[in-house]
Amino acid sequence: MLMDLFDRLFPINRSITGDGVRQSLRILGEIVPIRQREYSTGTECFDWTVPKEWNAREAYVKDSQGRKLIDFADSNLHLMGYSVPFRGSVSREELLEHLHTRPDLPNAIPYMMSYYKENWGFCIEHDRLPEFTDERYEVVIDSELKDGHMTIGEGFIQGASDEEILLSTYVCHPSMAINELSGPLVQTMVYRYLLQKKDLKYSYRFLYLPETIGSLLYLSQHGEELKRRVAAGFVVTCAGHGESFTYKKSKRGDTLSDKAAIHVLKQSGKPYKVVDWNPFGSDERQYCSEGFKLPMGSLMRTMYGEYPEYHTSLDNRSLISEEALLESVQMYVDVIETLEANETYECTHVHGEPKLDKRGLYPYTGGNRTDAEKRRIAAVTNLIAFSDGFADLIDIAEKLNVMGKDLRDPALLLEQHGLLRNVNVVDRLDLAAHWG
Fold first, then answer.
1. Of 115, 236, 382, 390, whose Cβ has the fewest other Cβ atoms within 10 Å?
2. Is the pLDDT of residue 218 over 50?
3. pLDDT classification of 363: cutoffs 50, 70, 90
4. For the chain, what is the domain count?
C-alpha cells in the first residue's frame, strides 16, 4: 500500500499553496479522515502573511529549432517554485540568469523556490549547461499567482482525556521522497493504526501543513489551546531512508516526548543518535519557539541535510523502501504505546514488602520457573519497590532495562489489588475540571 500511495503522490506538483496540496490531501484522505481548512491570502500569522496562491500548468524552454530543452512536464523540479507567468524570447545571457544548477551534484535537478519575491526560473542538471549554445530561446511559463487560499489538512481522534499527542508533517515539496513523502506516508499509517485502537488515553491531532508558514498559521489560530493541551508531539519527516534513526529533541530537551522517544530507541536494538534542538530544520522551529515551547521532538531516520541528494531530483523512489517506512511506523507506534501506558504510581504498602502469594501474585512454591514467570515476578516486585509517586513507568523501565509499555499490565494488576495508586488520575481529573 505504501509504495502505491507514493507512486500516486510523487508526480503531483506541491507547493505551499495550490491545487497540488489539495490533491495530495484528498489521496491521503482515502486512507484516513483529513479535513481540509482554507485560509485566505493576506491572513496574518505573527510576522508572516499567507501569500498568494500559486498553480502552474505548463512551462518550457525551446531552442531556435523548436526543441524543448527544459520541460516542466518531465519533472516538477524543472520549474522554480512560485515562478510568475512569463512568455517571450530571451537572450542566452538572460536565460542563464534564470537557470539554477548544482555544480557539486552535476547530474541532479536542484529544488528552488521564490515564495515571497516575484521571480521566474528553471532548474536543470549542471552537466546540461553546454547544450545551451543558441543566441535566443523561447520561454513559456503558464502559471497563475493570485489571491486565493492556503490549505491545511487536519485529523483528530478523541481519547479519554483532552490532553493531546500532536503529530505534524508537511506537504509542500514537489517530487521528493525522503524530504517530502516519507513524512506524510508514515504519519498517515500511524493515524490509521490509532483509528483502530479502542480506549485511547490521549486524544490525537494530525496536521498536514505547508512547512513553516503552515505551522505559523496554525499556531496563530490555535497556539494557546495547544499550549494547554499538548502533552507530547513529534514532527514527522525524513522517515524512509537509512539504517539508523535520529531523534531531535524538543527545545526544552526534557519533555515527555523526549523521554519516551529516547527510551524506545534504547530498547529497540536499532542504531540511533540523539541531537539537541536547534533553530534549523522543520516545523519544530515554530512549535518550540519561545512563545509556545511545545514538547515537540522529531523522530527521523537520515535527517534533512545529512544525505547528498537532499533538495534535488536525486531524492527519489530509489532512496526509500517500504520496509524502512514500515519500520518507522512501528517505531512511532512503540513510542505512542509507551506514552499510552505511562503512568506514575505510588505504592500503598510501605511497611516492608506486602505478602504477594496470598494475593495470587507470587507462587507458593519454589523451584524452576519459566522466563515469563520470572519476568512477571520481577516486574511486580520492582514496581512495588520503585513506585514512589514520582518515578513513572518509563523511569522504572529504564532501571530494569525493559520497555515501559511492558510494565503496564503488571502495574494495572497491582492497582487492582490495592497495592499501587495511580497518582496521575487525580492530576487528570483536576485538569479536566480546569478545562470545563
1. 390
2. yes
3. low
4. 3
Q: Which three cell numbers stand for residue 244?
A: 539508523
**Residue 434 has what pLDDT?**
44
The stretch 262-278 carries a mean pLDDT of 97
d(CA 110, CA 305): 14
Write out the three cell numbers for 75.
Answer: 519533472
> What is residue 431's predicted lDDT score, i.e. its pLDDT?
44
Listed residues 306, 341, 376: the one ending a domain: 341
HSE-up of residue 105 (Cα within 13 Å, Cβ side) = 18
Contact present, 190 and 229 (Cβ < 8 Å): no
Residues 30 and 104 in one domain: no
pLDDT value, residue 246? 98
Identify the CA nearest to 414 among candidates 324, 329, 315, 343.
343
pLDDT value of position 356 = 83
Residues of the chain by 3-state class (helix, strand, coil), percent to 5: 35, 25, 40
Residues 55 and 151: their CA atoms lie apart, in Å, by 13
Report the pLDDT value the prediction gives residue 158, as an integer from 0 to 100: 98
Q: What pLDDT score does 365 carry? A: 53
- DSSP of 149-192, one letter per residue? EEEEEEEEE--SSS-EEEEEEE---SS-IIIIIHHHHHHHHHHH
List all residues 6 or more positions away from 28 whose beta carbon is below 8 Å from its beta carbon. Answer: 5, 9, 34, 153, 184, 188, 208
- In sequence order, the 6+-apart residues with CB closer than 8 A to the CB of 364 are 357
Given 307, 341, 375, which residue is the final one in a domain? 341
Q: Among residues 237, 121, 217, 246, which one has the least CA distance to residue 173?
A: 237
Mean pLDDT of 22-47: 98
Q: Would you say 156 and 212 are in contact if contact means Cβ atoms under 8 Å apart? A: no
Kindly state the DSSP code that residue 267 receives in the 8-state scheme.
H
Q: Which three cell numbers stand for residue 101?
A: 544548477
Render pLDDT for 399-420 as a digit per residue (tens, 0 to 9): 999 999 999 999 999 999 999 9
Does 28 lie in the same domain as 161? yes
Q: Which of the 8 DSSP states describes residue 181?
A: I
Same domain (yes/no): 260, 397 = no
Residue from 378, 385, 428 nearest 407 by CA: 378
User: Rounded to the nearest 5 degrees, what angle is found at the Cα of 322, between the Cα atoms of 317 and 326?
Assistant: 135
**Structural domain containing residue 226:** 2-51+149-341
Helix, strand, or coil (residue 339) = helix
Question: What pLDDT does residue 369 have?
Answer: 66
Q: Where does 269-344 have alpha helices with state H?
A: 284-287, 322-341
pLDDT > 50? residue 225: yes
